[in-house]
């Protein structure tokens, strides 16, 4: 009990740890499971996947609680911090189940229970997997190309006055146009829809990255360059050792800005031209009126895009660790 | 005579500043003379300080000597060669914040060496300077994780590893607190004694100038001109509380019109 009273401070996981909240969080999900088992359903739904999901969730919470309690202080910070949030998640799962599947207050076809979404996802598993991989590949290729173009242009525009003078006014006007505006044209001009999609996503990515990179390069302290001249740096080395690292904080801002735009463009372009991918899957669901499919795709997108976001955030933390002050 | 016996010899002129003037357009579009008709020379191995009130063009003069700026009139020669652009043979230590914040102290110190020698640069030399600058244990920290004094010692080391013919110090101790300043002054003194590098120090600290330099060039502002070059023949190492030290200070204060 003494443990539960102790307040532990950690910058990232700042909420204190207590057995009480952890046990409550497990109970909240158990309640959601029991409710799903006991309350009679008004819709015909295969609750199997949902119950397995809840069971995995319960065991996961139990696991991090026990590991944190007995073995790892890092896990303890983590499980303690998120315990209260997990309670709200358990309650939400319970409430949505009652409102949709059980009482039908929010009715089909527009409102679908989470259980039904999971059932649909299991039914379409292969197709969804294929679509997810296809979307991921398309996004990755396009985003990398777009970000690279943005960084290279941004460095050239930020570092070289003549280049800036002759090209930035034009690039600015082109870059500000929403990529979606080019869609009717690209679908006709490009030999296949994949290239058209890549083009559109690249178009939505390069400008925010380039624009932020320019600011980053121009914001580098002149002293850094002057020091470099007295230290015998070549222009190549100045780019490599001063311009790129100096602009990186801004480059990441540009990347995060364009991330959302790229996801939007990914889904829109797949809806229009593709025969595979999450955007196509949603469009297909729309045509058949199967909204649980739509929700399934949304769940996958939420997961996928969150993971991508978190990964880039991790990369940023690693690359810009020089900005952290001594602790 | 000073320790290394090459004091202020006009015959041994190593660095020559001849009729140097620097003019700029200020924000109102007016032509402004920053330094005017500067003439002096420095002997090989000498330590010269530039002092004067702020706005007298000390830093401008130092930048002209380094080649970072070019004078509108006159020229600067080092060992007979005209200076037109910065070079590794002329080290320049800035007032503060010139270390690259994204490189560790070790990477910063080695950055010039790597630029000159390529990938297989002399790591041992870098280690040597980490040692003598008292940066051991902090070599893998980033500049914003160490104290201002350490950062300036690292900046000093970064220039010194390149073994420059001439080291230009632009108020490198100016932004430090009193304790740290003395500490860095002592390191500069030690290095000058050991390596016999010719050094020019810009400072607004009279004591610092007397403590370190063999000659002190006093400047007056608007525009910056040489008022007087004061010889400072006190024996090294100098004591800051000796009567000769205080006398020299009084003389400089008179030249600078201090009450």
Automatic annotation (TrEMBL), chain A:
UniProt xrefs under InterPro entries: MetI-like, MetI-like_sf
Signal peptide: none
Domain ABC transmembrane type-1: 132-316
Gene3D superfamilies documented for this protein: MetI-like
Presence of the UniProt keyword Acyltransferase in the record: no
Main localization category: membrane
Membrane protein topology class: Multi-pass membrane protein
Keywords: Cell membrane, Membrane, Transmembrane, Transmembrane helix, Transport
A single cellular component GO annotation: plasma membrane
Compartments where found: Cell membrane
Family membership: Belongs to the binding-protein-dependent transport system permease family.
Protein's name in the database: Aliphatic sulfonates transport permease ssuC
Species annotation: Liquorilactobacillus mali KCTC 3596 = DSM 20444
